[in-house]
Amino acid sequence: MAKIPYVDQEECTGCGLCEEICPEVFRLNEDGISEVYELEGVSEKEIQEAIDSCPVECIHWEEE
After folding, report:
1. Which residues, 6+ apart, have CB-to-CB distance to 15 below 8 Å?
2. Does residue 36 register a pLDDT over 70?
3. Which of 12, 25, 43, 63 is deepest in the core (most CB within 10 A)?
């Protein structure tokens, strides 16, 4: 099974750090909250760096 990143939007503070680290995967929506929008061509290592850097730990892996 593949892992996909998931953002708990109720916990997200909208700091934008995940978007800064991995802009190919994360973006801030119109409410200023992070969301996953693309997974093609990005390694799990890059996504994990964004997960590890999240100050409120609101990004997690889910099994697809």
Report:
1. 55, 56
2. yes
3. 25
In angstroms, rounded to a whole number, what is the distance separating the alpha carbons of residues 26 and 18? 6
pLDDT digits (tens, 9 = 90+) for 6-33: 999 999 999 999 999 999 999 999 999 9
What pLDDT is recorded for position 64?
A: 76
Q: Cα separations (Å) of 53 from 21, 27, 30, 64?
A: 9, 15, 22, 23
Tell me the whole-structure pTM to 2 decimals. Answer: 0.89
Show the domain range for 10: 3-63
Number of independent structural domains in the chain: 1
**Cα distance between residue 24 and residue 10, in whole Å:** 22
Q: Which secondary structure element, helix H or strand E, spans residue 52, and what is its range?
A: helix 44-53
